[in-house]
Amino acid sequence: MKLGHYLLLLLCVDLSFCKNLSQEDLLDEKCLQEKYTSQSCDKVFCHPWEKCIDKSCTCKLPYQCPKTISLVCSTTGRNYNNYCQLKSHECLYPKTKFLTNGTCSGQGQFDLSLKYGNSESEGLVEVKLGNTTAFICQKNWSITEANVACYYRGFKGGAVNYEKRFNFPHYVDVKITSCLEANCRGLETTLAECVLTKRKTNGKNLAGVVCHTEEADLINDDSFHCVNGKYIPQEKTCDGINDCGDQSDELCCKGCRKGGFFCKSGVCISPKYLCNGEMDCIGGDDEVNCEDLGHSEDQDLTASEIQDTRNSEHEIQEEEEILSVNMDEDRKLLKSLLPQINCGVRNNTHIRRKRVVGGKRANKGQFPWQVTIKEGERIHCGGTYIGGCWVLTAAHCVRKNVAHRYQVWTGLLDWLKINNETGIERVNRVIIHEDYNAVTYQNDIALIELKKHQTKPTCELPTTIPACVPWSSYLFRPGDKCFVSGLGRDEGKKNLYKLKWGEIQLIGNCSKYYSTRFFEKEMECAGTDDGSIDACKGDSGGPLVCMDSNNVAYVWGVVSWGENCGKPEYPGVYTKVAHYFDWISHHVGRSLISKYNV
Ligand code: 4AZ
């Protein structure tokens, strides 16, 4: 029975063959309880005019935007230096909306009304754009564009129906010859931000919409309840289309229906966003293996065929007139201008995918974030350099009042062969998690602040590269391959004091091994099926790193505890670092460890 379900899900992801899956199969109930929306930075990236604070995308202040100058004009008649600054202003004061690119000229205006419906919440979509008043064409009109129209009219749940037809009443005698085709990304708050293209029409194929109101909700036993209160048919969840309007129907998926692309983080996105140069999945899985997809559509055509298609494109363009600008391109450009910290990328070494207890000797530069903590003459524990003057380790490795007794050694591969790449740092301060429990090993996490060098204001550590700190517990999941490293003990107590590493898997459902001693939100288990590779005494405090789709290393775990070493029935237990992102950033500063969403 269980296996059958599992197979169906696999089919679902791989062959997009899941029409007959019910809610239990596709949706993750536990995840749904968290009420994630498009504002949840655990699941999605924030806009460039937002930053991630306490797991939620929050408005930036305009001065926190990039400083580029590319003037835009708002509906309040004010000019802004760039689109980000306007959008951050809108985020704080929603009455301000985008109007046009360039300076405000006085005659520019935008409005959107719903015409000829039975209530204020439905009708044909008419827009006023500068001196033009026109209906929106049915061509390309989808839930994405319909949601934007409804947001503009103040319906927070977006649209419930974008296919309903509305007719002109008999007393209206107008001959419609053109309409505006709208193309939106779905993140806009006004159709003025979408690409609007003037098209010829006979007046029959015009877009209509029914916006979300409580009365318009079609509820039945099987409806999916969106976080914003809207109900949608179950079949519209996990299909890569934002039917809820707040994306809550796409964020807690175990697989995707036909047409959706499955991000490992449990999010379904539209395949339109694959290989478009922008990361949509938080782990970047939509932007890998792109060689044979997207971008290169021209490749199969001969040169003359390309010329032909270009000519015909040109001909069509003469018939149509693009009346707006592509603000989605501006948004992408702004995103690329945001600061990104340098972490988790090694200098041209690679890990040989072969096979602590078990494991291999590490080469120079292979684990450049690995540090060794010494107390007196003893190698005491491992640690992970995370940038600035900061090292992450286990609480059970350090004591608060003896900072002066510790040394942090960097670049150490062999305790018996110290070379000139080995750095020795002194410790300024030790911060132990305030809820660390030495009996249960809950919150077994601590930070070590290194002493700055006398002459320099920073802690420059030669040959040491920080590992990234994971901001979301959805970046990796059971089954993912990760690496543990340390100078600890192995089974025969050979190779003591040499840096070794091993590839291990994240293990789900670890309560089955440790029952009540395992706390799922705060701890992570990892190991191999046969237990042959494991952390052991002396490795404590050291890193378990996992690589995202772009091969960027995240410190996913801190070696914490385990029953024995190298026994398959007792996997190693790690402090789950993602759970402590806010705690870490509170102490070291958000900008030091926020890879994105700053
Ligand atoms: C230790 O004693 C220890 N096999 C660390 C990790 C594990 C067991 C013991 C996991 O520091």
Give the secondary structure arrangement, pairings included.
Elements: H1 2-15, H2 23-26, H3 29-32, E1 50-53, E2 56-59, E3 72-74, E4 79-80, H4 83-92, E5 98-101, E6 110-116, E7 122-129, E8 132-135, H5 143-152, E9 159-161, E10 178-183, E11 195-200, E12 208-211, E13 224-225, E14 231-232, E15 261-263, E16 267-269, H6 303-319, E17 321-322, H7 327-337, E18 360-361, E19 370-375, E20 378-387, E21 390-393, E22 406-410, E23 423-432, E24 446-450, E25 481-486, E26 500-507, H8 511-514, E27 523-527, E28 543-547, E29 553-561, E30 572-576, H9 581-588, H10 590-593
Antiparallel strand pairs: 1-2, 3-4, 3-5, 6-7, 7-8, 7-12, 9-12, 10-11, 11-17, 13-14, 15-16, 18-26, 19-20, 19-22, 20-21, 21-24, 22-23, 23-24, 25-26, 25-28, 26-27, 27-30, 28-29, 29-30
Bound molecules: 4-(aminomethyl)benzoic acid.
Shape summary: elongated
Helix percent band: 10-25%
Number of strands: 30
Structural class: alpha+beta
Summarize the biggest pleated sheet: 6 strands, antiparallel, barrel
Low-confidence stretches: 1-21, 294-318
Strand order of the largest sheet: 25-26-27-30-29-28
How far apart, in Å, are the first and last alpha carbons? Answer: 45 Å
Strand content: 15-25%
- Ligand set: 4-(aminomethyl)benzoic acid
Number of helices: 10
Rg on CA atoms, Å:
28 Å
